Amino acid sequence: MAVIGSVADEAQEGSVRFFVNAKSDFDDWTERPSATQQTWMREHYHRMLTYSPYFDSRLDWYPDAWVYKNSYAIESDRAVFSKYSHWVLRDAKGRLLYIPFACSAGACPQFAADVGNPEFRQWWIDGLRDKLETGYTGVYVDDVNLDWRVSDGNGKHVKPIDPRTGTEMTLSDWRRYFAEFMEEIRSAFPDTEIIHNVIWYATPADDPYILRQIDAADYINLERGATDSGIRGGSGKYGFETFLSFIDRVHARGRKIILDDDDSNTIAERDYELATYLLINDGFDLIGADGDRSRMNPENFWMGYSIELGRADGPLFNTGEVFQRDFECGRVLLNQPDMPTRKIDIGNGFNGFDGSAINSVVLPESSAAIVMKADCN
Alpha-carbon distance 299 to 2, whole Å? Predict the structure, then answer.
């Protein structure tokens, strides 16, 4: 496993390590950045998810880049499909199956490969090796789906036929194949940072294949962060408390979290996502703001991402009304979804982001407050 933290790289739970998904809509900042902008990005972006071959020539000024690679996609419009179509999963009638994304008119842009096929795995690993030799720090493995994500051309779930048994593939075997594949990637690249983009609500929580998959990564990416509209209150399958429990499980296994927020574009959602990050940050986790480029580019970086609350007094806790975490220089309070509005008295000596004194906060559902101690420098 790659080394994420060290003595020289001391954990600070109350500060931010920022992550950028540098998709094509971020090209304005990566295509021809000035020397000043290059330096700024190195100083403010802890890691950047990038796409080859576009970013290959930019590694000289931003070397801490991860290269994107989908875990089981075979592009339907690429020459590789005609050569390797035998790797694509099929249904009981022999029809090709897809990854259920952007499907239209009976087809999707990505066929679903059989991750249990050793030839596919080796081809995938060989392709990654070529990319890493270019100079990337790590690989971002997308669609590490340990829940079913196989469909027909209309995006409707279909159970594939397992080429090894000739019968319908079971969910347990699907997960086993994925866990084994991720372990092979880890074994092939022991010193490379490996990131898995996962489905956090896959159950049961103690499934051995899910745990093996987590162990094969350095970072676990939560693609829609805490502002995912599907997260509800409480401890149900999609509950906020379940979300926190998953993060706890990842941390307990020595891995790190990325809250990659691609949904929030309001001030309230922005604050809620940062508050969630500060509640769970072990000092080496990352946060992104993929949903709103206007607050995280080199010409407009929100002050909240430069916050310095210092070391945490301990982990988050539930007060009975809200989640809270205390820091050397501040406090974070969060009211999860589907809960009544809470008014919380916090006492004297706290300021808001604008520097004004605050002694109480009102928190509707899915909202948060970050306050700083007035006597902290």
Answer: 32
